[in-house]
Amino acid sequence: MKITKKRVVLFLLFIFPLICFLILSTGKNNFTKLPVLTKNVIDISAIKPSKTFKDHISVVCFLGDNIEVNKAGFFNLNEKIYKSFIDYKQFQIIAVYPKEKEVQVAVLKKEIGAFTDMAKWNFIAADKEEIKILFSSFKTNENLANLYTSKAFLIDKNGNLRGRTNDKDSTIYGKLFGYNMQSVAELNAKLKDDIKVLYYEYYAAFKNKNENKADRKEVGL
């Protein structure tokens, strides 16, 4: 077939856009979803009824018995994660601590709050057994020493623990259950990125749901 200027123009005007549309359509849901590592962890409402993981994207940390010694990680979490997502809907940080540590927690809150809107920081006091039971429901490969771990955990809107299954730095089957608060690099490169992936996952699901409703309306369903 002889290629003429007219055929080239027709191809660019009609065929090429159709090909692009088909390619984009087949890749509609082809984005990376953040793996679920543990389903249905114990909801924080079991400890404090006014708070919940449901319908929130939660970063959970355990403050432990010696908050003063471990506080650098909480400052990192505030600077690198909390301040990046404070304006995102349904985002929250849940900080669980032993009931007898109210004085240390008050000092920590005052120090973090000096330059931070604390509206989405939630400090929750709990009995030692409650803390252990909550943490054990995450089913991680981490240890809770003196009710503290250096890791922060990401819980989705359905109460599932999210993380990575192919993390190159993990020594246990590539699974990353929690993010090291002592490492600014890990918070930046991993936790921040994973929260964004999770938000996009919900955005894409919402968008697809609305598109499906529109499609059904068009065909009279």
If you had to describe this structure to a student in words, what would you say it looks like?
By secondary structure, the protein is α/β, with parallel strands linked by helices. The chain has a single domain, classed as Glutaredoxin, CATH 3.40.30.10. About 45% of the residues lie in helices and about 15% in strands. It has helices at about 5-25, 65-85, 100-115, 130-135, 185-220; strands at about 35-40, 55-60, 90-100, 120-125, 150-155, 160, 180. Strands 1, 2, 3, 4, 5, 6 and 7 form a seven-stranded mixed sheet that branches. Strand 3 (about 90-100), helix 3 and strand 4 (about 120-125) form a beta-alpha-beta unit. The two termini are about 45 Å apart.
